[in-house]
Structure formats: C-alpha cells, structure tokens
C-alpha cells in the first residue's frame, strides 16, 4: 500500500497501460536459468513486494542466477498487457480475475504462483450502522471505486441477494464519505490502515468471508516464458519464497529494507500493513502446500463465478489455460510451509 495514494487495484483488466522498454529474460536457452528479467510489479513499490525486496537485498536472486529489474505498476498500468506484449518477462497482478479475463481475450498468460492466498478487499462500515454479513447490504448504499461493481455483484450473487436492493455510489480512495454518512459501507483493502485512520472505529466484512474467493498478488507469465524459461521462473519462485519466509520471521528488518528501496514509504504504516498482509500470505493453504501455492479448484470457482456474471466478452477460458502448477511442483521442496 502506498502512503500517498491508496491502491485502487481493480478486479478486471484495466484500460490504461504504460509503455516500457523491452527487456526479456535472456541467456541459457530453453529452460535455462540466468540472465536479466524485467519484473512487472502490481503497484509502484510497497509491501506487496516485501519478500522480493528482501530476496534482492540478501542476494538470493543472484544466487538463483536471476538479475531482476523491478518495473513499477500503478492505477493506469495494465501489467498483464505489458507482459503479454513482451515488455516484461513476467509479472505480478493484484487480483486473480485479471489473468483469467485477459486469457479469455486472447492474451497468452497463465498464473504460475500466488503471493496472497486470501484477497485483502473488504467492505468497511461504522459500528452504528454495521455491515457484518452480506445480508446487511440490503437497503444500504455502498461506496466502490470505479470498476468495483463486478466484485460487489459477485458477493451479492454468491449470497442470493437481489442487487436492485443495494445502492451503489462511485467514490475515491478517501474514507471521508463513510465517515460523513454519505455511504453506509465502502470497499477497501484491509491492509490500507493509513486510509482507515480517519475512522475512530470500524467494522470489516471481507470479500473472502462473503463467498467470493479471489487470490491477490498473482505471479504470471506468457505460455512461451513458462515453456522456455522454466528454470528462470523456478529460481525466481525459490528466491522469493525465501524472502517471504525471512520477512515472516524478521518483519522489522524486512520493512527497513523495503523503506530503504522505496524511501517515499513510511515505516510505521508499512510495518502495520505488513503485519496484516502476512496473515493473508501464510494461511492453511501454505501450511499444507508451501508459499505460492494455488488451487486448481479455486481457480475453477472463480471462472464459474465470472461466467455466471457474464464478465467474459468471449468464451470463458478453461482452468488449464489460466494457471499451471508446473513451477510450484518443481520448487515444492524449497518453498516454506508456514501458516
């Protein structure tokens, strides 16, 4: 989360994109490791790449033979399109639907690992007028950011709630409309503690707990990169997993390294947000299958939900076109099992 602006990361592929220099992972031939890789991150640099920053600082990417260049993202950067077009070797996207929707539109990208097991998006309300369960949305006005109607519709559909009974108002990232009673609830990331600081108290209803199970910080690459640069991706996953394991046990030091790389961040807010984020990164799923794990069944449920909501403009993609566990299987022994 940026200290200057909230992450307004949307749950579908955005329209804006930035044009970056072309740097591909090179050297080593098909399946080889090493070379330089431009890595398209989801935001401009924050706790979403905490483990990567640790791995870089500790020299673990170098050990893996990968020279990594962080390419910043942001609200107007379509990272999936950049990776698909070859402007980056692989990338990270804030929300899993972006990958499956891009695939349905003909972009040859697939997820190969997941950073955040439970998406941080939630609906925030005040104790005097709480939204503690999906049924509480009925008769209320919900503030969402542009593009956020899709996920709200998914929550309502998952709980058999007629969306005509819920009013929607497009808002920004500032929680003033909620504080002043202009809306009854607002969408926001539970890691965005800086934005919540204007509220004396608040209630939280997570999207995950409302029957819509999405991944956050999804790692993805093109089919070609997954096929031809497998060792490079394996090296990245092993080093990154090591970075998050270290951050889990040495959070204060990890945040120091993050703020050193991105001096515009504030340590206190990044530390508090990272405490929350760690609980979403390491869950029962990672305790069983290790950092980066992802479920084929969960991906299929997401595809089915978005198909039901008629979000795919073309034929819905198959789960095997959206994700692959090849890299995870190859790195199973080195990925930490924490939860």
TrEMBL record:
Keywords: Iron, Metal-binding, Pyridoxal phosphate, Thiamine biosynthesis, Transferase. It comes from the Bacteria. It catalyses: N(6)-(pyridoxal phosphate)-L-lysyl-[4-amino-5-hydroxymethyl-2-methylpyrimidine phosphate synthase] + L-histidyl-[4-amino-5-hydroxymethyl-2-methylpyrimidine phosphate synthase] + 2 Fe(3+) + 4 H2O = L-lysyl-[4-amino-5-hydroxymethyl-2-methylpyrimidine phosphate synthase] + (2S)-2-amino-5-hydroxy-4-oxopentanoyl-[4-amino-5-hydroxymethyl-2-methylpyrimidine phosphate synthase] + 4-amino-2-methyl-5-(phosphooxymethyl)pyrimidine + 3-oxopropanoate + 2 Fe(2+) + 2 H(+). One of its GO terms (biological process) is thiamine biosynthetic process. Residues 50-254 form the SsuA/THI5-like domain. Pathway: Cofactor biosynthesis; thiamine diphosphate biosynthesis. It holds the Pfam family NMT1. GO terms for molecular function: metal ion binding; transferase activity. Homodimer. Belongs to the NMT1/THI5 family. Responsible for the formation of the pyrimidine heterocycle in the thiamine biosynthesis pathway. Catalyzes the formation of hydroxymethylpyrimidine phosphate (HMP-P) from histidine and pyridoxal phosphate (PLP). The protein uses PLP and the active site histidine to form HMP-P, generating an inactive enzyme. The enzyme can only undergo a single turnover, which suggests it is a suicide enzyme. This is Thiamine pyrimidine synthase. It comes from Streptomyces violaceusniger.
